[in-house]
Structure formats: structure tokens, C-alpha cells
Description:
CATH topology of the largest domain: PH-domain like
Number of helices: 3
Distance between the termini: 22 Å
Radius of gyration: 23 Å
Strand order of the largest sheet: 1-2-3-4-5
Amino acid sequence: MPYSWSKSNTPNSAQELQLWPHQSLPPKGFVGFIGATFILILIPLVPLLGSVLLWGLLPFLLIAVGGLWFALDRSHRNAQVLEILTLTDKDAHLIRHNPKGDAQEWHCNRYWTTTEMHKTDGPVPYYVTLKGGGREVEIGAFLSEDERIALYEELNRALRD
């Protein structure tokens, strides 16, 4: 699961939940995929070595590899999201670190904090929100459906304790 709970040993016994999106392509895999794509694109060019056609096709093939590089890099940068929910005896505090470096915060008295699951009304099925302090904020929208369902149950259990 792309989230984890941790409990501190401090007197206020804070619980912390960290959520992050799936990263299916690690950096080594990125380099390997781009390298393998480049080599596979060069294979059809071997018979064209020494001809003028090579220079006519090569720029387009390099643009294709560059476009693939750009798209995968952009996807990786957009997935740099981290949500941290801290639950203390009295407070619930959610911080979302966005890909561009800015952070969004939500703070509420833990007693008034509720979780809601919108099975079909949200932007994704089984959309999980936290409600309290006059606001409703999403949590874990980037998780899969099964993970959001499990997260909802775990959040309810943690807020009841």
C-alpha cells in the first residue's frame, strides 16, 4: 500500500499517516526503458547507414525518444505528492505537499473530524474526504479503489480511538 501509519512515543501519542502515489517506474527503470527504446529505434536504421535517408529519418526518431523522455519525466514529477495526516489527542492536521513545492493545510479539532466516502459522487469512485472545521478536504484521491476503501476503514478506526 502506498501509505503507512506510524505512532510516536511522545506523551500526546500522535499518530501519523503518510500517503503517496504509486511510482511504478523507478529511476533505474526509467534509464533502462529510454535506453532500450533508443536501441530498438536504431535497429531499423542499420541498413540505412551511409545513405542520405539516415539523416532524413534520424531527427524524427530522436524527437520521438525526446518526447518519450519528456512525457515520462513529466509524469514522474506530477506524482511527487505527499499527504501527511497527524492525529493527536485533540487535533487532526493534514498537510498536502504538491508537485510544485507548495503545501496545503487543514486543521480541525479531532472530536469534530469525520470521514466520508462518496461512492459515486466524487471525481473518482470511493472518494474519501475528511470533514471538520467548516471544510471538507480530500485525502488519498490518487490511491486505487481498494486502497481508498481500506483507507476509509482505517481512518474511521483511528479517529474513534
